[in-house]
Each structure stands twice: as C-alpha cells, then as structure tokens.
Fold these 2 entries.
Entry 1:
Amino acid sequence: MSEQRSPSPYPLPNAGEETTAGLERHPVRAVERPPFGLRERIYVVEVWLGLAITFRHLFVNLWRHTRRALGLGGPPGAVTIQYPEDPAVVARRARSRHRLLKRDDGTPRCTACMMCETICPAECIHIRAEGSPAVIVEKRAKSFEIDLGLCVFCGYCVEACPVDAIRMDTGEVTLSALSREELLWTMPELLGDEPHGPHPLWPGGESEKRPGRFVY
Amino acid sequence: MSDLLWSFLLVCAALGFGLSISGLLGWVERKQSAVMQDRIGANRASIFGLRLIGLFHPIADALKTVTKEDFEPPFALQPWHRLAPTLSLAFSMAALAALPYGDTVVFADRSWSLQPLPLSAGVVFMLGMLSLGVHGVVMAGYASNSNYALLGGLRGAAQMISYEVSMVATLAAVLFVYGTLDLGAAARWQAEHGWGILYQPLGFLLFLAAGAAETKRIPFDVPEGESEIVGYFTEYSGMKFVMFMMTDFIETIVLSGLCTALFLGAWHVPGIAAIPQPWLGLAQVAVFIFKTLAMIFLLMQIRWTLPRFRFDQLLRLGWKNLLPLSLANAFVTLWAVYLLS
C-alpha cells in the first residue's frame, strides 16, 4: 500500500535509546534455576514423579467419566467440547462477526465518516454516504458492506469507529460459505434487520470498484 | 499327530492374541492418552450410530490402511524395500510363541503344555528374535535409498544394539537366580519361590528401561522420529507403514510378556494352585494375559508421560548408566547366588 499512515499514537523508543517505561510496573525478577542434583540425574525418581501426575489425571478422569456415565453427575472428566454438536464457546473478547449498532431511536449509529474503511488493512469494508435528515449528524451510510471473504478480523474498524457504530461481538465464528457471494454482508444484515443471504459482489457495479482493489 | 495339532492351535492362539491386542493398542493409546490429558479422544467412528467409546476406530484404521495407495519410491532397492516390513513384523511375531502363557494342564488322561514353543532356551530365542528385528529397521533404512531413511535406520541400529547389551546383562542376572533359560521353568521357579521382582527389583527397572528402548517408542523413538526428525520408514506408505507400526505394538506386547514371565511370576498368583486341574490352565492364561496387559498399560503411560531423549542423551543413558548398573547387578547377583548355593 502506497499511502502514508498517520504516525502511531504510541511511539516506540528509537533504536539505542534507553527506556524505563513499564519497568517500574514490571520489575525484572531473576528466577533461580532449581539445582540439578543426583535425584534428577539418575532420572528414575523423576520418571515416577511424572508418572504419578499422569496416573492421577488418568484415574481421576476415569472416575469422573464413570460417575457421569452412570448418571451421578459431578465434574466432567474432560475439557473437550464436542464441537459440531455443541456450540463453540467463544470468549467474550474474541473478535467474531461484525454488527452495526443503532441509536435509541432505531436509526443506525454510523455517520459514514469512513474511518473504518480507511483503516481496514484488508479493504473489505465498503461504505457509500448520503446526507442525513437528522439534525445531530451530517451524514449517514446509504450502504455498508463487509466482505468477510477479505476480512482478516483484526478489529481495527471497531477501534477506529468514533461513534461506536460497529462491534465484533456477535460470537458468530462459523462464517464459512460455499460461494463468494455468500460472504458479503449488507447493512440491513449487519444491523440485524434482515436475515443473511447471498448477494452480488459489490452491488454498485463496475464503477464502484476502486483502483487497486482485488477484483474477482 | 495330536501333539502337532495342539502346537498348531497354540501358535494360532498366540498369534491371534498378539494381533488382536496390537490392533486394540491403537485404541488404548488414543484413549489412555486422551483421558490422562483431560481430553476425550477419538470417538467419531460409528456403526449405525453406535460409537462404543471409539472402539470402531481400529476397524476404521484397518480399512483405511488396506485401501490406501501403496506407494513404492522408484529409487528404492527391491526386493529389500518390500522385504523389510515383513522381516520386522515376522520376527516380533515369532517371539510371541515362546511366552509361557500357562503351565501344563492334565486333561483326558494326558498333559497339554500351554506354552506354544516350550524351548529349553526360551530366553535366548526371545532375545534372538528381538535382535533380528533390528535387521528390518536397517534394511528399511538402506533399501529406501534415501538419506533420511538411512540415517533413521542407523539411529535405530545404534539404539537397539546399545540397549540390547544392557538388556542381556539384566536378563543374565535374573537367569542366575532361576538357574534356567527355560521360560516355563522360570515361571515354575517363581511359583515356588516367589516372584522375580522380589529378587531383582533393580533388574526389573533396568529391564523396563532397556525394553522400552527396544520397542522404539517414545521416549526412545529416535529411529522413528515421529514429529520432527525423519525416520527409517519415511519411504513407506499404506499397509507397509502399518506393518512397522504393528511391529512396535507387538514388540510392546512381547516385552510386557517377557517382563511378566521373568519378573511378575508369569501365570502365578497366590492361591491359584487351589483351582482344579482342567480349569487351572484357563486361570493361568487369564492371569498371564492380565499381567501382560497391566505391563502394556504401564509402558503406554510412560510413553505418554516422558518427552523424547536427544540421541546423545539416549546413548549416554544406554552405555554410561544402564550398562554399568546392569553389569553390576549381574555380578552382585552371581556372587550372591554362588555364596548361597
């Protein structure tokens, strides 16, 4: 990419420049290496200690599996999630599929400021603006498309948004599709107004394709 | 004639035991490692929706390997490339026949031996078969005509020969105690005087370490190099690769059986002699198989607990630690046996 990015608000120290930033919060600690004595060198004792740990896990887990198989409840014997049957557990802070937020009156929060589209490293966000009839904002998005086939889920759009209009907290991560058309999400779908379906890519047509963008 | 038929039946039974257990070991390995690592393990293979805690996975594995393409590299040296897995597997399976699964049974006015191959030098036969297994490894490495495979084969040869030396020294100590090379006689001696592990606790540990090295499995899987270093069966695919895998499993069974026969009293448990004669044989076989399976369980646990040795660490352990210890054990035992007799 040829265009210049604005300098980072968190400048790194230059090469050779000493910094103590962060050291007062995280003082360096020297961890003593445990002595490597005879017991470690003859290895046999350590092997049995290691085996004790794995045997403990084995028998505790077998006991728990048996209890649950008999319908007695208790803690599970494994941390495994049987994924396609059970839903994937995504951490609350995990970056999942985007959504657009609305104001209290139901209008989209997006003011078409193009910050997300500008910062997007994958260039997967495509916004068209129009004048807003509301008094409080100047512009609004006429259309807002995200091509998840290009998105790298970096979350920069969420960081960049000045009006908290876009978030990546839906918890949806199973976004695979059989065609590229199904990977395009339009504004009503991102707002949750319409169910998601396939769309012709970049509905604006040939003129909407910006130079340098990957063309299918 | 009936002797021949009986021997044939016994050999078939021993083979069936070894092959079925080695098939099952794939499942045991998956499930045991899964449970001790707080996982569930392979459980997807199902027949009509019946999963049976993953027990169908060995069948799925077998189907997969049988139907898989058997690729032979054009640069491989034939027929040695084809011969190597057969050789490897055949010797380990031959060792199965000499294990003392039980004592003699008196039934229908004659006695039947429950040992398929009641050799007077059974221990030597077992050691010979285990040593000949090295030839399969070296042959696979050489005949693959590939540098990776050759180096893997050489590592395998160096490792197995190193650990055989300490294994023989350890076994010598036990055999001084029993005064016989016959595995059946050793089992009877233990039934009379107490299990071998009571007389040779250090020998048991040394034998376990050397034996684990003989099976070429983690922590001694340097010849195979499962994850990062490439081993002697790099140029094998499909069923021939599985034959090497099966060799490792069957060697595990053989070593567990040998350990049971020489250290854990073979078919003997206190009070087994009270069982009436024809059923005694069945009870002995059951006890022997149970002990063997327990030993396999322990070896599996070791395999999933310890990380792999580096090659120099491996050879140092073999030559500088195990060999002096096992030789000292043998000489002390010999001295004690001489003084007591």
Entry 2:
Amino acid sequence: MSDILLRGTSLKKDYGRITVLKGVDIDVAEGEAHVVIGPNGAGKTTLFKVLSGEVFPTSGTVSFDGRDVTRLAGWQRTRHGVGRTFQMARIFKELSAFENLVVALEAKKRQGTSALELLRLVPAASIRDEARRILAEFSLEHVSAWPAGSLSHGDKKTLELAMVLAARPRLLMLDEPTAGMSPADRQRSVELIAGLMKGGGLSLLLTEHDMQVVFGLATRITVLNYGEIIATGSPEEVRSNPRVREVYLGHDVSAA
Amino acid sequence: MTRLSQVGLPQFLAILALLAGAAVALPGIANPGIVFLAGLAVIEIVIALAFNFLFSTVGILSFGQAAFILVGAYGGAAAIKFAGLSLLPALLVAGLVAGLLALAIGVVALRRVEGVYFAVLTLAFASLAYLTVGKVAVLGREDGLTGITRPAVDLGIVEIPVVATTSFYYFIVAVGVVLTAVMWFATNSQFGRVLRAIRQDQERAGFLGVNVQGYRLAAFVLAGAVTGIAGALLGPWTQIVTPDLGHWIQSTKPILQAMLGGAGFFWGPVVGAILFAVLTYATRTLVGITEIVTGGLLLAIVLAIPGGLLGLTGSLLRMIRRERSR
C-alpha cells in the first residue's frame, strides 16, 4: 500500500512575475486519501492544474506510476489513469445526463479498441446499459434525460464525478468537491467518496475548505501556504502542529 | 430500427430522398437556365453544410472556406485539363489538395487561437490563397483556367459520359447526396458526439482522455476536403475557374446561408442555400439592386429570427400545438 502513485518534485509555477508555487514536493501513495488544504490564494488550484496536466510547471517534475508525465497533456495523463473534477463542475451542458455518461464511457472504450468505433451511430448496447447502471448507482436516474445544464448544483457535481469514475481512474483528483453545496449534499458527497475509497484500487488527492469534509476523508493532510508546504502528515499530526494552527486553521480545528 | 430512429436516421434518409427526388425532377419541368442555377445551388448546399458542421458541431468559426473552394476548383480543373484524369479521380485530387491545405492551416491556427481570432486567421489564409492563385502563370493568373471539359465517370466496369448539361447536373446531384450523407454521418456518429462534447467543454473532454486538438483538426480537414470536392464540381459545370472563387465573399455565403436557414439544424444550411438561390433568381432582372434586396432580407431574417427559418418554423409549430391542446 505504500507504493507512490503520483509524485511532484520541486514544482515551481510562475505566472509572469508572480510565483504561485515555490518548489513543492508532494506525493500520493496508493490507496491513500491525501487532502491539500490552505488559505485562499495558497496555490492549491495551481498545484492541482500542474499535477493533472492542465498547465505545465515552470520547473520541477511530475511522475505517475513511476513514469515521468511532466510534459504530457491532461488527456494523455487521463489515459494513464488520472481522473479529475473541477471546482465548478464541468459537464456537457446541452447533452443529457445520460449522454454525458455515454461520451465518457465511449472515450474510455475507444482507447482499447479501433478508431472504427467512431463510425457508430447508436452507442453500443453495453455502453447504454453501463450508463444506466452508473446513473442508478449515483441516484441520478430521475434526471437521466434532462439537459445536464439544468441539473442542480449538487447533481452536476455528482454527474461529473460519475463521468470521471466511468474511465476507471487509479488516481482521483477532486478540486473542492463540496464547494457551494448545501450541508446535506455535502454529507452525501463525503459518504459517496468514502464509499468509493472502500471499494479499493483508488487513490485520492483533493483540495477542500470545509474542515468537516477534510477530517472526514483524509488519511494524510498537506498544508499549503503562499506556494510552500508548511506541514504534511496524518490528520492528528497536522491538527496539533502549532505552525499550522497559527497560519491557517485557527479555531476551525477546535470546532471540528 | 427503434434505435436508429433515435438518432434520426430514417428521418434523414426520407428528407434526403425527397430533396434528391425534387432535384432529379427539375430538368423535366424547368428551363436550362434554372437547371444551371440549381446545379450551383447543390454545390453551395454542400459548402454550407461543411461550414455549419464546423460552426455548430465543432464550434469552429471559419471565415476562410473560400480557400478550400478555390484550391478544390483549381485542383480538380488542373487534374482534368493537365493530367487528363477522369471525373472521380479528379474530385479525389481536389479533396486531397483542399484537405492538405486545411491540415496546414489547422496545424498553424487551430492550436493557437480560438473564436474570432481563428476566424480572422482563416480569412487571412484565404486572402493569401486568393492573391497567390491570381499570380501563378500556369493557372492562368487572373483569367483563370478556361475550357474545362467534362470527362466521363469511370466506374471500372462502365464509363458514363456526362458531357451533356443534364447528365452533368445529375452527376452533381449524386455527389451532393453522397457528401450530404457524409456530413450527416460526421455530425451524428460517435465522432460527432465527441465533437459536440468538445464544443461544449474542451477541458472536460480532455480530462476524459479525448485528444481535443486532434479531433478539432480532423474535423477541420474533413470539412476542408468536402468543400474542396464541392468546389471541384464548379470547373466542369461552368467550364471556367477564376481566382474569384477564393474571394472572401465566397466565405461569407455559407455563413449567411447557414444563419438564414438555421445554424442549429442539420438542414438549416440546405434551406438557406435553396432560398438564397431562389432570391438570386427572383431578383436577377433588378440590375444593381440584387445585392441590396438579398442583403436586406438576410439582415431582417437574421435580426428578427436568430434561429433561422427552421427555428421559426419550429416555434410556430409548437405554438399551433399549444393552441390545439387548450
């Protein structure tokens, strides 16, 4: 279980003259749920982008499963087994929830079979069945035929998660999975994600603001502040780290 | 068949058969002048369908489709005039040349820029092609290539002569039907599903493992090749190709036709191109004000009904249905 799946080494990212990441070392071991926290502007989302391939680091390397992926684009990393969601759920708004899943499943299937799949008019029966099964699993059957853009905020996030999982990633990267959710939806999401982890074969890297979610899911926590890591360790270690309390957590921790 | 009806295949085939039937019946009831214009209209339909495929399915606004008409027309004409190729290989050459040009433009422009910037770049490339072709001696400079013949259609076992105007008109209709089917297939197959997904959210598509730039490039090349093949029909039909086929006006036509008919519909550009042809014919005697009449009408329709004619028809039908159900 201690094998390192994702490793970022000395990651630096400049946007013009502003340095957002100042040499970050971070890794995700297989099977762990690693949560990155930090105040707004700490560079969490930039770190996410660099690790997932949305942007390339100014310097430093990213490796996945022992392979250097620093210069691989996001879609290539996805094919190696990285799945990610966005802070604002990104889905195909004009397609129905069902079609969203079909697109995700077909994208996965094409990687294993010939490009002739592209000539199919109707999605294969196996794809349609799988899409329906996933919709049911995530309690989205009732919105199956709705344009995804008309779904509630929570359902959009759930749909996005379902699409990402359809590709059967080994590493799941979630950028603030419960942002903007109601407390009830938030609780449901935590249970959902915890359930996924129980299934095994999945590792998690997520950023989150809500401390209840953080401590509910994390097996390891890393604290980012102004582009630098100031602490990393088990939830207990981080909770009792005086520097962390001073810089960021404050009374949030005692409340949690 | 219930499955195929979900993607609208039977409906598509029915409409295509209806349109093809009407086109085939035309020479029996109309004079040769109208048949000539109808041949041009079929070519414009294909060009407009290819434009709208890029615009509405892929989300690429190309303002330089004239470049592909131009190189397709010259490629086909040169293949016939200089290489003595028969008709189908000549069309293939045209598709290849236009496809390669689209590949070159796409590699340079698609990766770097989006939206309006891409449109301006394609306009620049098309202007470059237009000016270049007008200066090449072997292509007849500004006079173009004249006296382009109509070689036979060689199907291996039989050779079909299409020298007569009506025969060549049927050939244009046949090619138009095939290319329309190609565009429909590209729009509604899994390939089209991926492209629609990309149009709606490139990042999401990419993080599902889709090579977004690869698909956009492939779609741009396909539309370029189809436009080039349609352009290659122009030479043998009008017996002449000139650099004017690459004038930017030729790039605006498919845009206007798509908007006129309804860019959100597969058949929108077809409706638009047909109406455009009818308007041109109806105002042909009004020397000098043809452009004003067509331009004004287009402006009115585009401003008043953004969904185009098909969009308007759709809302009217819904309104009638609602009235009835009351």
